Amino acid sequence: MVSRLRNPYFWAAVAILLATVYLSFGTYVGWFQLGFLVGPYRFNHWTSWIGFLFVALYAPLYHILKRRYPKRAKALLGTHVIGNLLSFLLISVHFASQLGRPAQFFPDLGTGIILYAMVTIMVATGILQRFQIAISFFRKWRFLHTSMATSFYLVILVHVLQGLGFL
């Protein structure tokens, strides 16, 4: 427990999670208006795409690089944890903006709510693993974390195709 409290990544994770809650709540209740256009799409969509791209690209890259460069595994893990938490922040802002839309413009949340639940489970199990919380369940956290990451790719494909009007 003491080593966790001295770990700068732990405190960075806590800070990012607190910022996620604050920014998501603020977006949901309308403190932050993120529906303005940036090019052809709304800013809140860009946030989710940036978050998605990091998760989608860095997760498999991390898996490959940590085996290829084992001496850099700690730095790669740090990038994995902090990068995915920042991606979760961006995705949460998008999700909150969707939930905060007026009733007449409320979106169909089908795959979006499933994706958000999956990403939340990935973040929670990742934190439990990284900071060795409830270590007796480590193998279960790892299985759930990996399963959600794999499923994420399948569901995001459907979500994007629905959002672009192909499905």
What does this structure look like?
- 75% of the residues lie in helices and 2% in strands.
- The chain has 167 residues and is mostly helical.
- A two-stranded antiparallel ribbon has the order 1-2.
- The relative contact order is 0.12.
Return the structural class. mainly alpha
**Could you report the average pLDDT, rounded to the nearest whole number?**
89
Quickly count the helices. 6
Question: Measured on Cα atoms, how large is the radius of gyration?
Answer: 17 Å
Identify the strand order in the major beta sheet.
Answer: 1-2
Order of helices and strands: HHEEHHHH
Question: Beta-sheet strand percentage?
Answer: under 5%
Give the terminus-to-terminus CA distance: 48 Å
Number of strands: 2
> Tell me about the biggest sheet?
2 strands, antiparallel
Contiguous uncertain segments of 5+ residues: none
Fraction of residues in helix: over 70%
Principal-axes geometry comes out as globular
Topology:
Elements: H1 2-5, H2 8-29, E1 37-38, E2 41-42, H3 43-68, H4 73-99, H5 110-130, H6 138-163
Antiparallel strand pairs: 1-2
Condensed summary:
This protein is mainly α.
What distinguishing features does this structure have?
two-stranded antiparallel sheet, 2 strands, single chain, 167 residues, mainly alpha
